[in-house]
Recover the amino acids of this structure.
Protein backbone atom coordinates (compact mmCIF):
# COMPACT_ATOMS: atom_id res chain seq x y z
CA UNK A 1 0.00 0.00 0.00
CA UNK A 2 2.83 2.30 0.83
CA UNK A 3 4.52 1.47 -2.45
CA UNK A 4 1.34 2.26 -4.30
CA UNK A 5 0.81 5.64 -2.76
CA UNK A 6 4.38 6.60 -3.59
CA UNK A 7 3.87 5.91 -7.29
CA UNK A 8 0.47 7.56 -7.17
CA UNK A 9 2.01 10.66 -5.70
CA UNK A 10 4.80 10.72 -8.29
CA UNK A 11 2.32 10.36 -11.11
CA UNK A 12 0.14 13.06 -9.72
CA UNK A 13 3.10 15.34 -9.33
CA UNK A 14 4.25 14.65 -12.88
CA UNK A 15 0.78 15.33 -14.23
CA UNK A 16 0.82 18.68 -12.50
CA UNK A 17 4.40 19.63 -13.33
CA UNK A 18 4.66 18.64 -17.00
CA UNK A 19 1.92 20.95 -18.30
CA UNK A 20 3.27 23.70 -16.11
CA UNK A 21 6.74 23.32 -17.60
CA UNK A 22 5.25 23.31 -21.05
CA UNK A 23 3.39 26.51 -20.39
CA UNK A 24 6.50 28.13 -19.15
CA UNK A 25 8.66 27.49 -22.24
CA UNK A 26 5.92 27.43 -24.79
CA UNK A 27 6.66 30.77 -26.29
CA UNK A 28 6.39 31.30 -30.00
CA UNK A 29 9.94 30.10 -30.73
CA UNK A 30 9.43 26.40 -30.10
CA UNK A 31 8.31 23.73 -32.48
CA UNK A 32 8.59 23.60 -36.24
CA UNK A 33 7.00 25.27 -39.20
CA UNK A 34 7.13 25.02 -42.99
CA UNK A 35 8.85 27.52 -45.24
CA UNK A 36 7.38 28.04 -48.70
CA UNK A 37 9.50 29.32 -51.55
CA UNK A 38 7.84 30.38 -54.77
CA UNK A 39 10.09 30.52 -57.83
CA UNK A 40 8.43 33.08 -60.06
CA UNK A 41 10.07 33.06 -63.47
CA UNK A 42 10.52 36.40 -65.16
CA UNK A 43 11.95 37.84 -68.36
CA UNK A 44 13.18 41.26 -67.37
CA UNK A 45 10.23 43.26 -66.05
CA UNK A 46 7.62 40.83 -67.33
CA UNK A 47 6.40 37.43 -66.23
CA UNK A 48 8.03 34.73 -68.36
CA UNK A 49 5.67 33.23 -70.93
CA UNK A 50 6.95 30.58 -73.34
CA UNK A 51 6.67 31.67 -76.95
CA UNK A 52 6.56 35.38 -76.12
CA UNK A 53 9.30 37.52 -77.59
CA UNK A 54 11.75 39.33 -75.32
CA UNK A 55 14.95 41.25 -75.98
CA UNK A 56 18.23 40.16 -74.40
CA UNK A 57 21.09 42.44 -73.39
CA UNK A 58 22.73 41.92 -76.78
CA UNK A 59 19.59 43.37 -78.38
CA UNK A 60 18.46 40.04 -79.85
CA UNK A 61 14.83 38.86 -80.04
CA UNK A 62 14.45 35.67 -78.02
CA UNK A 63 11.55 33.31 -77.34
CA UNK A 64 11.86 30.60 -74.74
CA UNK A 65 10.61 27.00 -74.81
CA UNK A 66 12.50 25.42 -71.88
CA UNK A 67 13.58 26.87 -68.54
CA UNK A 68 14.47 24.25 -65.91
CA UNK A 69 16.83 24.48 -62.96
CA UNK A 70 17.91 22.43 -59.98
CA UNK A 71 18.00 24.20 -56.61
CA UNK A 72 19.40 22.38 -53.58
CA UNK A 73 21.09 22.52 -50.20
CA UNK A 74 18.85 25.13 -48.61
CA UNK A 75 20.09 26.91 -45.51
CA UNK A 76 18.19 29.37 -43.32
CA UNK A 77 20.29 31.89 -41.44
CA UNK A 78 19.38 33.61 -38.19
CA UNK A 79 20.41 37.15 -37.31
CA UNK A 80 23.17 35.88 -35.01
CA UNK A 81 24.61 33.90 -37.91
CA UNK A 82 23.50 30.47 -36.73
CA UNK A 83 22.15 28.30 -39.50
CA UNK A 84 19.49 25.70 -40.06
CA UNK A 85 20.62 23.31 -42.80
CA UNK A 86 17.79 21.47 -44.55
CA UNK A 87 18.52 17.73 -44.28
CA UNK A 88 20.12 16.04 -47.27
CA UNK A 89 17.17 13.73 -47.85
CA UNK A 90 14.87 16.66 -48.59
CA UNK A 91 17.03 19.39 -50.07
CA UNK A 92 16.90 18.72 -53.83
CA UNK A 93 14.31 20.34 -56.07
CA UNK A 94 13.87 20.56 -59.81
CA UNK A 95 11.90 23.61 -60.95
CA UNK A 96 10.41 23.51 -64.41
CA UNK A 97 8.76 26.54 -65.94
CA UNK A 98 5.93 24.51 -67.45
CA UNK A 99 5.19 22.76 -64.15
CA UNK A 100 3.87 25.34 -61.69
CA UNK A 101 3.79 22.89 -58.79
CA UNK A 102 7.51 22.16 -59.21
CA UNK A 103 8.20 25.86 -58.60
CA UNK A 104 6.45 25.91 -55.21
CA UNK A 105 9.14 24.49 -52.96
CA UNK A 106 8.30 23.66 -49.36
CA UNK A 107 10.99 23.22 -46.72
CA UNK A 108 9.25 21.15 -44.08
CA UNK A 109 9.78 21.16 -40.30
CA UNK A 110 12.08 24.13 -40.01
CA UNK A 111 12.77 24.99 -36.36
CA UNK A 112 10.78 28.02 -35.23
CA UNK A 113 12.84 31.17 -35.21
CA UNK A 114 13.55 34.48 -36.86
CA UNK A 115 15.51 34.11 -40.04
CA UNK A 116 17.25 36.91 -41.86
CA UNK A 117 18.85 34.96 -44.67
CA UNK A 118 18.26 32.18 -47.17
CA UNK A 119 21.02 30.34 -49.02
CA UNK A 120 20.79 27.65 -51.63
CA UNK A 121 22.78 26.12 -54.43
CA UNK A 122 22.00 26.28 -58.14
CA UNK A 123 22.67 22.70 -59.24
CA UNK A 124 23.51 19.42 -57.53
CA UNK A 125 26.51 19.27 -55.19
CA UNK A 126 29.45 17.05 -56.05
CA UNK A 127 28.76 14.46 -53.32
CA UNK A 128 25.25 13.84 -54.62
CA UNK A 129 26.50 13.94 -58.19
CA UNK A 130 28.66 10.87 -57.55
CA UNK A 131 26.34 9.07 -55.12
CA UNK A 132 25.20 5.45 -55.67
CA UNK A 133 22.26 4.95 -58.00
CA UNK A 134 20.15 3.73 -55.06
CA UNK A 135 20.45 7.20 -53.53
CA UNK A 136 19.04 9.01 -56.55
CA UNK A 137 15.30 8.86 -56.32
CA UNK A 138 12.64 11.41 -57.27
CA UNK A 139 14.00 14.40 -59.17
CA UNK A 140 17.49 12.87 -59.03
CA UNK A 141 16.50 9.64 -60.82
CA UNK A 142 18.20 9.83 -64.24
CA UNK A 143 15.45 7.69 -65.80
CA UNK A 144 12.51 9.41 -64.12
CA UNK A 145 12.52 12.76 -62.31
CA UNK A 146 15.78 13.96 -63.82
CA UNK A 147 14.87 12.81 -67.32
CA UNK A 148 16.37 15.42 -69.66
CA UNK A 149 18.37 16.98 -66.81
CA UNK A 150 21.15 14.38 -66.69
CA UNK A 151 24.21 13.87 -68.89
CA UNK A 152 24.85 10.17 -69.24
CA UNK A 153 28.06 10.66 -71.26
CA UNK A 154 29.62 13.07 -68.77
CA UNK A 155 27.90 11.67 -65.71
CA UNK A 156 26.23 14.51 -63.89
CA UNK A 157 23.16 16.69 -63.74
CA UNK A 158 22.27 19.61 -65.94
CA UNK A 159 21.90 22.42 -63.42
CA UNK A 160 20.14 24.94 -65.64
CA UNK A 161 18.55 24.28 -69.01
CA UNK A 162 17.44 27.14 -71.23
CA UNK A 163 16.20 26.61 -74.78
CA UNK A 164 14.40 28.74 -77.31
CA UNK A 165 14.38 30.35 -80.71
CA UNK A 166 15.61 33.63 -82.10
CA UNK A 167 15.77 35.04 -85.63
CA UNK A 168 19.34 36.03 -84.75
CA UNK A 169 20.33 32.44 -83.87
CA UNK A 170 21.78 30.25 -86.64
CA UNK A 171 19.61 27.57 -88.26
CA UNK A 172 19.89 24.17 -86.62
CA UNK A 173 20.40 21.78 -89.55
CA UNK A 174 18.48 19.08 -87.65
CA UNK A 175 15.26 21.02 -87.09
CA UNK A 176 15.54 23.82 -89.64
CA UNK A 177 14.78 26.31 -86.85
CA UNK A 178 16.82 29.19 -85.47
CA UNK A 179 17.45 27.79 -82.04
CA UNK A 180 19.60 28.44 -78.99
CA UNK A 181 20.36 25.92 -76.29
CA UNK A 182 22.19 26.41 -73.00
CA UNK A 183 22.60 23.27 -70.89
CA UNK A 184 24.84 24.06 -67.95
CA UNK A 185 26.25 21.57 -65.46
CA UNK A 186 29.69 20.36 -64.24
CA UNK A 187 30.33 19.91 -60.53
CA UNK A 188 34.10 19.92 -60.53
CA UNK A 189 34.95 16.37 -61.61
CA UNK A 190 34.92 13.09 -59.73
CA UNK A 191 38.61 12.22 -59.91
CA UNK A 192 40.54 15.18 -61.25
CA UNK A 193 39.54 18.79 -60.76
CA UNK A 194 37.58 20.14 -63.70
CA UNK A 195 35.25 23.04 -64.26
CA UNK A 196 32.94 23.68 -61.31
CA UNK A 197 29.80 25.60 -62.21
CA UNK A 198 28.04 25.21 -58.85
CA UNK A 199 26.75 28.56 -57.62
CA UNK A 200 25.44 29.54 -54.22
CA UNK A 201 22.67 32.10 -53.92
CA UNK A 202 22.55 34.18 -50.75
CA UNK A 203 19.46 36.30 -50.07
CA UNK A 204 18.36 38.52 -47.21
CA UNK A 205 14.90 37.66 -45.99
CA UNK A 206 12.98 40.55 -44.49
CA UNK A 207 9.38 41.55 -44.37
CA UNK A 208 9.71 45.27 -43.91
CA UNK A 209 11.84 45.57 -40.78
CA UNK A 210 10.90 42.12 -39.58
CA UNK A 211 12.91 38.98 -40.19
CA UNK A 212 11.18 35.99 -41.77
CA UNK A 213 9.29 34.20 -39.02
CA UNK A 214 8.98 30.47 -38.67
CA UNK A 215 6.41 29.52 -36.07
CA UNK A 216 4.68 26.39 -34.89
CA UNK A 217 1.55 27.74 -36.47
CA UNK A 218 3.07 28.50 -39.83
CA UNK A 219 6.06 29.81 -41.68
CA UNK A 220 7.00 32.50 -44.14
CA UNK A 221 6.41 32.51 -47.84
CA UNK A 222 9.38 33.69 -49.90
CA UNK A 223 8.51 35.07 -53.29
CA UNK A 224 11.57 34.81 -55.52
CA UNK A 225 11.95 36.29 -58.97
CA UNK A 226 14.03 34.25 -61.39
CA UNK A 227 14.93 36.35 -64.40
CA UNK A 228 15.92 34.19 -67.37
CA UNK A 229 17.31 37.24 -69.20
CA UNK A 230 19.92 37.60 -66.42
CA UNK A 231 21.59 34.54 -67.96
CA UNK A 232 22.36 36.63 -71.03
CA UNK A 233 24.16 39.45 -69.22
CA UNK A 234 26.27 40.47 -66.25
CA UNK A 235 29.11 40.04 -66.27
CA UNK A 236 29.21 38.92 -69.92
CA UNK A 237 26.65 39.57 -72.63
CA UNK A 238 25.77 36.30 -74.32
CA UNK A 239 24.69 36.55 -77.92
CA UNK A 240 22.48 33.84 -79.41
CA UNK A 241 24.02 34.74 -82.76
CA UNK A 242 27.65 34.14 -81.82
CA UNK A 243 27.19 31.56 -79.00
CA UNK A 244 23.89 29.82 -79.73
CA UNK A 245 24.72 26.65 -77.78
CA UNK A 246 26.63 25.77 -74.68
CA UNK A 247 26.81 22.37 -73.05
CA UNK A 248 29.61 20.84 -71.01
CA UNK A 249 32.31 23.01 -72.56
CA UNK A 250 34.50 25.81 -71.25
CA UNK A 251 31.91 28.42 -72.29
CA UNK A 252 29.52 27.05 -69.69
CA UNK A 253 31.48 29.03 -67.08
CA UNK A 254 30.34 32.25 -68.77
CA UNK A 255 26.73 31.06 -68.69
CA UNK A 256 26.91 30.02 -65.04
CA UNK A 257 28.64 33.24 -63.96
CA UNK A 258 25.77 35.11 -65.61
CA UNK A 259 22.91 33.11 -64.10
CA UNK A 260 24.43 33.14 -60.61
CA UNK A 261 22.51 36.37 -59.89
CA UNK A 262 19.23 35.55 -61.61
CA UNK A 263 17.54 34.68 -58.29
CA UNK A 264 16.33 37.67 -56.26
CA UNK A 265 13.94 37.86 -53.35
CA UNK A 266 10.99 40.03 -54.29
CA UNK A 267 9.14 39.90 -50.97
CA UNK A 268 8.37 37.86 -47.86
CA UNK A 269 4.99 37.04 -46.33
CA UNK A 270 5.11 36.28 -42.64
CA UNK A 271 2.57 34.02 -40.97
CA UNK B 1 18.87 -27.49 -19.30
CA UNK B 2 15.77 -28.15 -21.34
CA UNK B 3 15.58 -24.41 -21.88
CA UNK B 4 18.79 -24.51 -23.93
CA UNK B 5 18.45 -27.86 -25.59
CA UNK B 6 15.41 -26.97 -27.69
CA UNK B 7 17.00 -24.12 -29.63
CA UNK B 8 20.13 -26.22 -29.91
CA UNK B 9 18.14 -29.04 -31.38
CA UNK B 10 16.50 -26.68 -33.84
CA UNK B 11 19.88 -25.34 -34.86
CA UNK B 12 21.15 -28.85 -35.41
CA UNK B 13 18.11 -29.69 -37.48
CA UNK B 14 18.62 -26.59 -39.58
CA UNK B 15 22.25 -27.44 -40.12
CA UNK B 16 21.26 -30.96 -41.09
CA UNK B 17 18.75 -29.62 -43.60
CA UNK B 18 21.38 -27.41 -45.13
CA UNK B 19 23.76 -30.32 -45.49
CA UNK B 20 21.21 -32.28 -47.49
CA UNK B 21 20.84 -29.56 -50.08
CA UNK B 22 23.06 -29.77 -53.14
CA UNK B 23 25.95 -27.30 -53.27
CA UNK B 24 24.78 -24.00 -54.78
CA UNK B 25 25.80 -24.07 -58.45
CA UNK B 26 26.03 -20.26 -58.63
CA UNK B 27 29.04 -18.47 -57.32
CA UNK B 28 29.48 -14.72 -57.59
CA UNK B 29 32.23 -12.96 -59.49
CA UNK B 30 35.64 -14.65 -59.63
CA UNK B 31 38.00 -12.51 -57.55
CA UNK B 32 41.45 -13.76 -58.55
CA UNK B 33 44.41 -13.78 -56.17
CA UNK B 34 46.52 -11.67 -58.52
CA UNK B 35 43.98 -8.81 -58.54
CA UNK B 36 43.51 -6.19 -55.83
CA UNK B 37 40.17 -5.64 -54.09
CA UNK B 38 37.48 -4.52 -56.58
CA UNK B 39 36.86 -0.80 -57.02
CA UNK B 40 33.13 -1.51 -57.36
CA UNK B 41 31.36 -1.85 -54.03
CA UNK B 42 29.79 -5.31 -54.28
CA UNK B 43 28.24 -4.87 -50.84
CA UNK B 44 25.90 -2.24 -52.32
CA UNK B 45 24.86 -4.62 -55.08
CA UNK B 46 25.58 -8.26 -54.19
CA UNK B 47 25.59 -10.48 -57.26
CA UNK B 48 22.90 -13.17 -57.09
CA UNK B 49 21.99 -15.88 -59.56
CA UNK B 50 18.65 -14.23 -60.34
CA UNK B 51 20.17 -10.75 -60.58
CA UNK B 52 22.83 -12.07 -62.94
CA UNK B 53 20.19 -13.84 -65.07
CA UNK B 54 18.13 -10.65 -65.29
CA UNK B 55 21.22 -8.60 -66.13
CA UNK B 56 22.20 -11.04 -68.83
CA UNK B 57 18.74 -10.90 -70.42
CA UNK B 58 18.90 -7.09 -70.35
CA UNK B 59 22.38 -7.11 -71.89
CA UNK B 60 21.00 -9.06 -74.84
CA UNK B 61 17.71 -7.09 -74.92
CA UNK B 62 16.98 -4.98 -78.02
CA UNK B 63 14.06 -3.23 -76.30
CA UNK B 64 16.72 -1.00 -74.77
CA UNK B 65 16.98 0.82 -78.11
CA UNK B 66 14.44 3.24 -79.59
CA UNK B 67 13.36 0.96 -82.43
CA UNK B 68 14.19 -2.43 -80.88
CA UNK B 69 17.15 -3.03 -83.18
CA UNK B 70 20.20 -2.69 -80.91
CA UNK B 71 21.23 -4.54 -77.77
CA UNK B 72 24.36 -3.98 -75.67
CA UNK B 73 25.56 -7.33 -76.98
CA UNK B 74 25.46 -6.17 -80.60
CA UNK B 75 28.63 -4.13 -80.13
CA UNK B 76 29.97 -6.08 -77.15
CA UNK B 77 30.27 -9.68 -78.28
CA UNK B 78 31.13 -12.42 -75.82
CA UNK B 79 33.75 -14.28 -77.90
CA UNK B 80 35.57 -10.96 -78.44
CA UNK B 81 35.83 -10.16 -74.72
CA UNK B 82 32.65 -8.13 -75.28
CA UNK B 83 34.31 -5.83 -77.78
CA UNK B 84 33.24 -5.38 -81.41
CA UNK B 85 35.67 -7.39 -83.54
CA UNK B 86 36.66 -6.07 -86.97
CA UNK B 87 34.86 -2.78 -86.37
CA UNK B 88 37.02 0.33 -86.05
CA UNK B 89 33.87 2.08 -84.88
CA UNK B 90 30.45 0.50 -84.50
CA UNK B 91 27.16 0.99 -86.26
CA UNK B 92 24.34 1.75 -83.89
CA UNK B 93 20.76 2.77 -84.47
CA UNK B 94 19.72 3.68 -88.05
CA UNK B 95 23.16 2.46 -89.18
CA UNK B 96 24.81 5.49 -87.61
CA UNK B 97 28.46 5.19 -86.62
CA UNK B 98 29.99 6.29 -83.34
CA UNK B 99 33.37 7.98 -83.35
CA UNK B 100 35.20 5.61 -81.00
CA UNK B 101 36.05 1.92 -80.96
CA UNK B 102 33.71 -0.18 -78.81
CA UNK B 103 35.84 -1.20 -75.84
CA UNK B 104 35.97 -4.66 -74.25
CA UNK B 105 33.65 -5.25 -71.28
CA UNK B 106 35.78 -7.27 -68.88
CA UNK B 107 37.06 -6.88 -65.33
CA UNK B 108 34.72 -3.93 -64.88
CA UNK B 109 34.85 -4.42 -61.11
CA UNK B 110 38.40 -3.08 -61.01
CA UNK B 111 37.81 -0.02 -63.13
CA UNK B 112 37.67 3.43 -61.64
CA UNK B 113 36.22 5.12 -64.74
CA UNK B 114 34.48 4.16 -67.93
CA UNK B 115 34.52 5.07 -71.63
CA UNK B 116 37.53 6.32 -73.59
CA UNK B 117 37.18 9.77 -72.01
CA UNK B 118 36.36 8.55 -68.50
CA UNK B 119 33.08 10.45 -68.54
CA UNK B 120 31.37 7.98 -66.19
CA UNK B 121 32.68 7.16 -62.71
CA UNK B 122 30.50 4.22 -61.72
CA UNK B 123 29.63 0.93 -63.40
CA UNK B 124 25.95 1.37 -62.54
CA UNK B 125 25.77 4.53 -64.67
CA UNK B 126 27.48 3.04 -67.72
CA UNK B 127 24.43 1.66 -69.59
CA UNK B 128 22.63 5.04 -69.50
CA UNK B 129 25.27 6.43 -71.82
CA UNK B 130 24.79 3.82 -74.54
CA UNK B 131 21.01 3.93 -74.20
CA UNK B 132 20.84 7.70 -74.61
CA UNK B 133 23.55 8.08 -77.24
CA UNK B 134 21.88 9.25 -80.46
CA UNK B 135 24.16 6.98 -82.50
CA UNK B 136 23.88 3.90 -80.27
CA UNK B 137 20.42 3.15 -78.85
CA UNK B 138 18.87 6.65 -78.95
CA UNK B 139 16.29 5.86 -76.29
CA UNK B 140 15.24 7.53 -73.06
CA UNK B 141 15.88 5.36 -70.00
CA UNK B 142 12.39 6.28 -68.76
CA UNK B 143 10.86 4.65 -71.84
CA UNK B 144 13.08 1.60 -71.42
CA UNK B 145 11.65 1.11 -67.94
CA UNK B 146 8.10 1.50 -69.30
CA UNK B 147 8.78 -1.18 -71.91
CA UNK B 148 10.18 -3.53 -69.30
CA UNK B 149 7.16 -2.97 -67.01
CA UNK B 150 4.82 -3.91 -69.87
CA UNK B 151 6.87 -6.97 -70.86
CA UNK B 152 5.47 -10.46 -70.13
CA UNK B 153 8.65 -11.72 -68.44
CA UNK B 154 10.56 -8.85 -66.87
CA UNK B 155 8.39 -7.98 -63.84
CA UNK B 156 8.62 -11.60 -62.65
CA UNK B 157 12.39 -11.59 -63.20
CA UNK B 158 12.70 -8.35 -61.21
CA UNK B 159 10.73 -10.00 -58.43
CA UNK B 160 13.08 -12.99 -58.36
CA UNK B 161 16.12 -10.73 -58.37
CA UNK B 162 14.97 -7.92 -56.08
CA UNK B 163 11.97 -9.18 -54.13
CA UNK B 164 9.15 -7.36 -55.89
CA UNK B 165 7.94 -6.74 -59.42
CA UNK B 166 8.84 -3.07 -59.24
CA UNK B 167 10.96 -2.06 -62.23
CA UNK B 168 12.94 1.04 -61.32
CA UNK B 169 16.12 2.76 -62.40
CA UNK B 170 18.34 1.46 -59.62
CA UNK B 171 17.24 -2.16 -60.06
CA UNK B 172 17.53 -2.02 -63.84
CA UNK B 173 21.06 -0.64 -63.65
CA UNK B 174 22.13 -2.87 -60.77
CA UNK B 175 20.99 -5.97 -62.66
CA UNK B 176 23.10 -4.95 -65.65
CA UNK B 177 25.99 -4.33 -63.26
CA UNK B 178 25.55 -7.81 -61.81
CA UNK B 179 25.95 -9.30 -65.27
CA UNK B 180 28.98 -7.13 -66.03
CA UNK B 181 30.46 -7.85 -62.59
CA UNK B 182 30.62 -11.52 -63.55
CA UNK B 183 32.67 -10.79 -66.68
CA UNK B 184 36.02 -11.45 -65.03
CA UNK B 185 38.89 -12.49 -67.22
CA UNK B 186 41.76 -13.84 -65.14
CA UNK B 187 42.54 -17.31 -66.46
CA UNK B 188 44.97 -16.57 -69.25
CA UNK B 189 48.26 -18.50 -69.38
CA UNK B 190 49.84 -15.36 -67.90
CA UNK B 191 47.45 -15.41 -64.91
CA UNK B 192 48.04 -19.09 -64.20
CA UNK B 193 51.77 -18.44 -64.45
CA UNK B 194 51.83 -15.51 -62.03
CA UNK B 195 49.58 -17.37 -59.60
CA UNK B 196 52.14 -20.20 -59.71
CA UNK B 197 49.47 -22.73 -60.60
CA UNK B 198 50.79 -26.28 -61.06
CA UNK B 199 52.17 -26.84 -64.52
CA UNK B 200 51.66 -23.23 -65.61
CA UNK B 201 54.56 -22.08 -67.77
CA UNK B 202 55.13 -19.47 -70.42
CA UNK B 203 57.27 -19.98 -73.53
CA UNK B 204 60.81 -18.58 -73.26
CA UNK B 205 60.09 -15.98 -75.94
CA UNK B 206 57.05 -14.72 -74.00
CA UNK B 207 59.08 -14.52 -70.80
CA UNK B 208 61.68 -12.39 -72.54
CA UNK B 209 58.82 -10.36 -73.95
CA UNK B 210 57.47 -9.90 -70.46
CA UNK B 211 60.68 -8.21 -69.32
CA UNK B 212 60.74 -5.99 -72.40
CA UNK B 213 57.09 -5.15 -71.88
CA UNK B 214 57.73 -4.15 -68.28
CA UNK B 215 60.54 -1.84 -69.42
CA UNK B 216 58.89 -0.28 -72.43
CA UNK B 217 55.13 -0.47 -71.91
CA UNK B 218 54.59 -1.20 -68.23
CA UNK B 219 54.36 2.37 -66.95
CA UNK B 220 51.02 2.94 -68.65
CA UNK B 221 49.88 -0.67 -69.04
CA UNK B 222 50.54 -1.27 -65.36
CA UNK B 223 49.39 -3.93 -62.89
CA UNK B 224 47.66 -7.17 -63.81
CA UNK B 225 44.88 -5.08 -65.32
CA UNK B 226 47.50 -3.78 -67.78
CA UNK B 227 46.36 -0.21 -67.39
CA UNK B 228 47.16 2.53 -64.92
CA UNK B 229 43.65 3.89 -65.60
CA UNK B 230 44.97 7.29 -66.67
CA UNK B 231 44.35 9.34 -69.82
CA UNK B 232 47.18 9.90 -72.25
CA UNK B 233 47.90 11.16 -75.73
CA UNK B 234 49.79 8.32 -77.39
CA UNK B 235 50.53 10.18 -80.61
CA UNK B 236 47.96 8.40 -82.71
CA UNK B 237 46.91 11.72 -84.24
CA UNK B 238 48.11 15.30 -84.06
CA UNK B 239 44.77 16.93 -84.85
CA UNK B 240 41.95 16.21 -82.42
CA UNK B 241 39.21 18.43 -83.82
CA UNK B 242 37.13 15.35 -84.68
CA UNK B 243 37.45 13.93 -81.15
CA UNK B 244 39.09 15.87 -78.33
CA UNK B 245 38.99 12.85 -76.00
CA UNK B 246 39.19 13.50 -72.28
CA UNK B 247 38.87 17.24 -72.90
CA UNK B 248 35.27 16.71 -74.02
CA UNK B 249 34.29 15.86 -70.46
CA UNK B 250 36.89 17.78 -68.45
CA UNK B 251 37.06 20.99 -70.55
CA UNK B 252 40.77 21.22 -69.58
CA UNK B 253 43.09 22.24 -72.44
CA UNK B 254 45.71 19.79 -71.15
CA UNK B 255 43.29 16.95 -71.83
CA UNK B 256 42.94 17.49 -75.58
CA UNK B 257 43.78 14.26 -77.41
CA UNK B 258 44.01 12.16 -74.26
CA UNK B 259 42.20 8.84 -74.04
CA UNK B 260 41.97 6.20 -71.38
CA UNK B 261 44.85 3.69 -71.33
CA UNK B 262 43.07 0.42 -72.22
CA UNK B 263 43.70 -2.94 -70.65
CA UNK B 264 45.57 -5.36 -72.89
CA UNK B 265 43.77 -8.49 -71.75
CA UNK B 266 42.37 -10.68 -74.53
CA UNK B 267 44.10 -8.45 -77.03
CA UNK B 268 44.10 -11.15 -79.71
CA UNK B 269 40.28 -11.14 -79.65
CA UNK B 270 39.65 -7.39 -79.61
CA UNK B 271 41.19 -5.98 -82.80
CA UNK B 272 41.10 -3.34 -84.15
CA UNK B 273 43.05 -1.24 -81.67
CA UNK B 274 43.16 2.34 -80.36
CA UNK B 275 40.32 4.74 -79.56
CA UNK B 276 39.58 5.14 -83.25
CA UNK B 277 40.26 1.53 -84.24
CA UNK B 278 43.12 2.65 -86.45
CA UNK B 279 45.26 -0.50 -86.28
CA UNK B 280 44.17 -4.01 -87.26
CA UNK B 281 47.17 -5.91 -85.92
CA UNK B 282 49.46 -5.92 -82.90
CA UNK B 283 52.41 -5.51 -85.26
CA UNK B 284 50.87 -2.26 -86.52
CA UNK B 285 50.43 -1.08 -82.92
CA UNK B 286 54.08 -1.69 -82.06
CA UNK B 287 55.21 -0.15 -85.36
CA UNK B 288 53.25 2.93 -84.32
CA UNK B 289 55.05 3.20 -80.99
CA UNK B 290 58.43 2.51 -82.61
CA UNK B 291 58.17 4.89 -85.55
CA UNK B 292 54.72 6.38 -86.05
CA UNK B 293 54.10 8.64 -83.05
CA UNK B 294 52.82 12.09 -84.06
CA UNK B 295 53.70 15.20 -82.13
CA UNK B 296 51.21 17.55 -80.53
CA UNK B 297 51.28 19.75 -77.40
CA UNK B 298 49.68 17.14 -75.14
CA UNK B 299 51.75 14.16 -76.36
CA UNK B 300 52.64 11.96 -73.40
CA UNK B 301 56.11 12.87 -72.05
CA UNK B 302 57.00 9.16 -71.93
CA UNK B 303 56.90 9.18 -75.72
CA UNK B 304 59.59 11.86 -75.95
CA UNK B 305 63.08 10.39 -75.85
CA UNK B 306 66.09 12.32 -74.43
CA UNK B 307 67.54 12.67 -77.94
CA UNK B 308 64.38 14.43 -79.10
CA UNK B 309 62.98 11.51 -81.06
CA UNK B 310 59.39 10.43 -80.52
CA UNK B 311 58.00 7.04 -79.51
CA UNK B 312 59.52 3.98 -77.86
CA UNK B 313 62.69 2.49 -79.31
CA UNK B 314 61.90 -1.10 -80.37
CA UNK B 315 63.87 -3.50 -82.54
CA UNK B 316 62.16 -6.08 -84.74
CA UNK B 317 63.24 -8.81 -82.33
CA UNK B 318 61.86 -6.92 -79.33
CA UNK B 319 58.53 -6.43 -81.06
CA UNK B 320 58.27 -10.15 -81.78
CA UNK B 321 58.97 -11.01 -78.15
CA UNK B 322 56.55 -8.44 -76.77
CA UNK B 323 53.81 -9.77 -79.04
CA UNK B 324 54.60 -13.31 -77.86
CA UNK B 325 54.03 -12.06 -74.32
CA UNK B 326 50.83 -10.18 -75.18
CA UNK B 327 49.40 -13.39 -76.65
CA UNK B 328 49.67 -15.02 -73.21
CA UNK B 329 46.99 -12.57 -72.00
CA UNK B 330 44.28 -14.33 -73.98
CA UNK B 331 41.86 -16.09 -71.67
CA UNK B 332 40.04 -18.78 -73.62
CA UNK B 333 37.98 -19.81 -70.59
CA UNK B 334 36.52 -16.33 -70.52
CA UNK B 335 36.02 -15.95 -74.25
CA UNK B 336 34.14 -19.26 -74.41
CA UNK B 337 32.29 -19.03 -71.11
CA UNK B 338 28.77 -20.26 -71.87
CA UNK B 339 27.32 -18.43 -68.85
CA UNK B 340 27.99 -15.19 -70.68
CA UNK B 341 27.16 -16.08 -74.31
CA UNK B 342 23.68 -15.57 -75.71
Amino acid sequence: MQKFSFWYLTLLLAALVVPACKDKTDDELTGFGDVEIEFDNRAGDAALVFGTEYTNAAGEKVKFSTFNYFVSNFVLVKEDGTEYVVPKDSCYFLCKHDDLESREVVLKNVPAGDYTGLKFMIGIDSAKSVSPITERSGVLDPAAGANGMYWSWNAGYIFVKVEGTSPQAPVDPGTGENTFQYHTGLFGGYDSPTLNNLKTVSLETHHGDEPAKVRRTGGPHFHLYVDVLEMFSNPTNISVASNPTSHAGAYSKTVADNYADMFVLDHVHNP
Amino acid sequence: MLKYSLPLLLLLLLAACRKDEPAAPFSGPFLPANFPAPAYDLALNPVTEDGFALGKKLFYERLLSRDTTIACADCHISYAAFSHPDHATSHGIDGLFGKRNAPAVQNMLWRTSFFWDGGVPNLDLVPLNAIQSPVEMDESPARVLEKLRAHPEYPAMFKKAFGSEEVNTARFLQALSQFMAMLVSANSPYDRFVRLEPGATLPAEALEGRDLFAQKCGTCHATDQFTDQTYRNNGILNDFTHDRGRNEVSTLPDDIGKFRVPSLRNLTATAPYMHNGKFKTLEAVLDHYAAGVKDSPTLDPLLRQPDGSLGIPLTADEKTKIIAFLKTLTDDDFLRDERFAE
Q: What stands out?
A: Residues 32-269 of chain A form one domain.
